[in-house]
Design brief:
InterPro entries: TVP23-like
Mean pLDDT: 78
Protein name: Golgi apparatus membrane protein TVP23 homolog
Order of helices and strands: HHHEEHHH
Number of strands: 2
Strand content: 5-15%
Keywords: Membrane, Transmembrane, Transmembrane helix
Family: Belongs to the TVP23 family.
Radius of gyration: 20 Å
Helix content: 55-70%
Subcellular location: Membrane
Strand order of the largest sheet: 1-2
Shape: globular
Number of helices: 6
Length: about 200
Amino acid sequence: SSEDIEDVSLFDADDDVSRRSKKSKIRHPVASFFHLFFRVSAIAVYLLCELLTSSFIACMVTIILLLSCDFWAVKNVTGRLMVGLRWWNQVDDDGKSHWVFESRKVSAQRSKTSSEAESRIFWLGLITCPMIWVIFAFSALFSFKVKWLAVVMMGVVLQGANLYGYIRCKVGSRKNLTSMATSYLGKQFLRQTVAKEDQTAS
């Protein structure tokens, strides 16, 4: 499989302090809006549909359309613009599935790097909404709302696929989530230890 991977900061937490002031501005407001609009709208329709209409079919079609628009927009547009990442899955002639990842070349396009605000909006929306759909899935299961379970599972699958794709795109094929989490926690522990030593010394 061909994987083109460049390290991009997940939350821009490791960027130089000198660049943060330049990167706090939202450079793609339309993309940032639609990154959250479709997924939040799908959740809102799911929560309010029984108050708005008695037609289950109308609610189901509306939610699935919003989820599909969200999947396409996040996978093809907002990820590329907001954090410089893109992923897709392709099947070769032998029938084997390959994950393909693209990342913006920071050295070549330094002036177009993502802003910290956009990065936070992207990852917050990408991570939070699938978790909400998982909660809805358990709620529908335990309350025996079988007809809603299919709709909720569509939310989990579509938004979970984007989350999985972008995390794999961010982490890369040579790393795994465990090593990334260990590295992040190690950095945080080191920073806290240094800060305590500085306080003690002063």
